[in-house]
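Hi R.,

As promised on Friday, here is the backbone we talked about, encoded as C-alpha cells. Could you run it through your design pipeline when you get a chance and send me back a sequence?
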C-alpha cells in the first residue's frame, strides 16, 4: 500500500507538489474512476494518468561505502553528493539516503525508496544502533568511557547514553542509538578531544560489505532487507 502522490512521484511524474496538482486537475484515475485525493492509499488498483496506465516504480534498498569528500544530500549545486554515485534507474525510483554522514566521514550508508522505513530507522525512539570507528587527536581516557555511558549534554540537546570502547590509545569504537548532526564528533569535543577520522562500520543489523570499495554500492539481499524492516518495527512491503 502506498499513497497516490508518492506512487506517481516515484513513477517519474514530478515532485510531490507537481503530482498533487496533476491529481487536483482530475487527470488521475483509479480503476477508471477519477481520484482527486492525493493522500488516497493505493494497493491493487489500476492507476492511470490521462488514460495511460502507470507502472509502479521498483523498490530498492542499497548499501553504499560512502567515500570522504561527498555530501549526503539529494542534490547540491556546489558539491558532489552520494546521489552522483548512483546510476539513473535508482535516481528515478526515488531512492534516498537514510540519515546522513558528514562530508569527511566514510562508511556504511543505507539508501531506500521506502520513506517510512527510512524515517523509522533514524528515529531515536527505535534505538537502531550505529557503530563508528574513530581516530582521535588526544589519547582516550577511562573518563571518556564513563561520560559516554552517562549521556553527554551538548548545546542544543543531551546525547543519549552511548558505548565507547577504547581499542588503542587514540582509536575507539563508538555505538550510538541516534544520529544527530555531527553527534559523535561533538561528543568527543565535549570530552576535550577531537575526531581526526570517522568511519561507520554498522547500521542496525547491517555490516559494511568488506568487498565494497569507497564510492561503490550494492543492492541489499532479501535477508538484509527483512532485517531492516524488523529493526524498524515494520512489515515488509
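Update: got your reply. Pasting your designed sequence below so it's all in one thread:
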Amino acid at each position: 500500500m502506498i499513497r497516490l502522490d508518492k506512487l506517481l512521484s516515484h513513477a517519474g511524474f514530478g515532485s510531490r507538489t507537481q503530482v498533487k496538482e496533476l491529481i487536483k486537475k482530475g487527470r488521475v484515475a483509479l480503476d477508471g474512476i477519477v481520484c482527486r485525493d492525493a493522500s488516497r492509499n493505493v494497493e491493487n488498483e489500476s492507476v492511470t494518468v490521462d488514460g495511460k496506465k502507470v507502472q509502479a516504480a521498483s523498490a530498492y534498498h542499497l548499501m553504499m561505502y560512502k567515500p570522504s569528500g561527498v555530501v549526503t544530500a539529494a542534490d547540491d549545486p556546489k558539491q558532489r553528493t552520494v546521489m552522483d554515485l548512483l546510476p539513473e534507474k535508482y535516481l528515478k525510483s526515488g531512492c534516498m539516503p537514510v540519515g546522513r554522514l558528514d562530508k569527511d566521514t566514510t562508511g556504511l550508508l543505507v539508501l531506500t525508496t521506502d520513506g517510512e522505513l527510512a524515517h523509522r530507522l533514524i528515529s531515536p525512539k527505535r534505538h537502531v544502533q550505529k557503530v563508528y570507528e574513530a581516530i582521535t587527536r588526544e589519547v582516550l581516557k577511562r573518563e571518556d568511557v564513563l561520560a559516554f555511558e552517562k549521556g553527554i549534554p551538548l548545546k542544543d540537546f543531551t546525547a543519549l547514553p552511548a558505548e565507547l570502547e577504547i581499542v588503542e590509545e587514540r582509536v575507539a569504537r563508538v555505538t550510538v542509538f541516534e544520529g544527530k548532526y555531527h553527534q559523535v564528533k561533538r561528543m568527543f569535543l565535549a570530552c576535550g578531544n577531537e575526531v581526526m577520522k570517522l568511519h561507520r562500520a554498522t547500521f542496525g543489523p547491517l555490516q559494511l560489505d568488506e568487498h565494497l570499495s569507497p564510492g561503490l554500492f550494492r543492492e541489499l539481499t532479501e535477508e538484509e532487507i527483512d532485517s531492516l524492516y524488523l529493526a524498524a518495527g515494520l512489515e515488509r512491503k
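One thing I noticed while checking it: The CA atoms of residues 29 and 48 lie 5 Å apart.

Thanks again,
M.
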